[in-house]
């Protein structure tokens, strides 16, 4: 974020209230909040945590939020050993992790749409078929109800959070055979739009208003905010804030946690490519 943005927003929260005492107390609270908040973990949550952190710091100029993209496992461990205020995980906590003193709070859901060319006859695929297509076991569209043609798999580059999520959910990690590895969701959408035999994947928010590609149903279920929220769409995972059970966060960390899990953060989460869960 730019210094100018921080300064502008910060000055707004620090303007003294000139109304009654109750309103004054509410207005002064953000200006007096200070300290640092350390987050650590999932690389897939980078855009979500970045958007939330940027806005929170703009609104609370005395707070600094750091993010260390170490991966979900390391983030969970950081929350456990106290080296981070809040751990970040793009998976649910295991029973043993919860029993070990950790609490998970789902901040968002990651819905990943499987896309084909807009003119493709293929409307629905199972998770198993998708896995076989991306690992090269199914190579022709005629094998899954489409016109004959060699399937071209388009995916993201190594290290992409969307790729990590897609491969984890479909069980294809380190096994995908891609014709193109692209560095942005927009590039994947463009490549699939321009190739009648292509298939790819992209975050739900990126394809909602596109007519150049088609999101297939997966096991008969469309990828929508509603189906991601109710769990019926298969290719999804939770974005989790991990904290130590029974331990009190610092005022700054608690305020950021409360903001991230509130409906006030929903539009930022959606803009970052995830599905907010707060009502």
Computed over alpha carbons, the radius of gyration is: 21 Å
Structural class label: alpha/beta
Cα distance, first to last residue?
28 Å
Number of helices: 12
- In total, how many beta strands? 12
List keywords for this structure.
two-stranded parallel ribbon; 38% helix; alpha/beta; 279 residues; ten-stranded mixed sheet; 12 helices; single chain
Task: Please write out the topology.
Blueprint: H1 3-13, H2 21-32, E1 35-41, H3 46-59, E2 63-68, H4 72-81, E3 86-89, H5 95-99, E4 102-117, E5 124-125, H6 127-134, E6 152-156, H7 161-170, E7 180-182, H8 185-193, E8 198-203, H9 204-207, E9 213-215, E10 217-218, H10 225-230, E11 236-244, H11 251-260, H12 266-271, E12 275-276
Parallel strand pairs: 1-2, 1-3, 5-10, 6-7, 6-8
Antiparallel strand pairs: 3-11, 4-8, 4-9, 4-11, 4-12
């Amino acid at each position: 974020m730019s210094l100018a943005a921080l300064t502008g927003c910060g000055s707004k929260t620090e303007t003294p209230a000139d109304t009654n005492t109750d309103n004054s107390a509410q207005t002064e609270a953000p200006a007096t909040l200070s300290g640092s908040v350390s987050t650590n973990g999932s690389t897939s949550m980078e855009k979500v945590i970045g958007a939330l952190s940027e806005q929170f710091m703009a609104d609370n100029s005395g707070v600094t939020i750091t993010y260390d993209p170490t991966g979900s496992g390391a983030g969970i461990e950081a929350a456990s050993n106290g080296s981070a205020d809040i751990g970040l995980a793009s998976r649910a906590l295991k029973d043993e992790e919860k029993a070990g003193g950790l609490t998970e709070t789902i901040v968002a859901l990651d819905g990943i749409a499987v896309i084909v060319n807009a003119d493709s006859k293929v409307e629905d695929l199972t998770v198993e078929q998708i896995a076989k297509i991306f690992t090269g076991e199914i190579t022709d569209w005629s094998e899954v109800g489409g016109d004959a043609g060699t399937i071209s798999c388009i995916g993201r580059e190594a290290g992409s959070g969307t790729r990590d999520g897609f491969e984890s959910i479909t069980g294809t990690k380190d096994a995908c055979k891609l014709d193109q590895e692209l560095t942005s969701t927009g590039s994947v959408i463009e490549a699939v739009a321009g190739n009648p035999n292509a298939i790819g994947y992209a975050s739900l928010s990126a394809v909602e208003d596109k007519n150049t590609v088609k999101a297939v149903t997966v096991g008969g279920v469309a990828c929508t905010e509603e189906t991601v929220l109710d769990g019926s769409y298969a290719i999804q995972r939770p974005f989790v804030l991990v904290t130590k059970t029974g331990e009190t966060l610092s005022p700054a960390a608690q305020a950021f946690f409360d903001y991230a899990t509130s409906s006030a953060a929903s539009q930022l989460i959606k803009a970052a490519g995830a599905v907010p869960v707060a009502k």
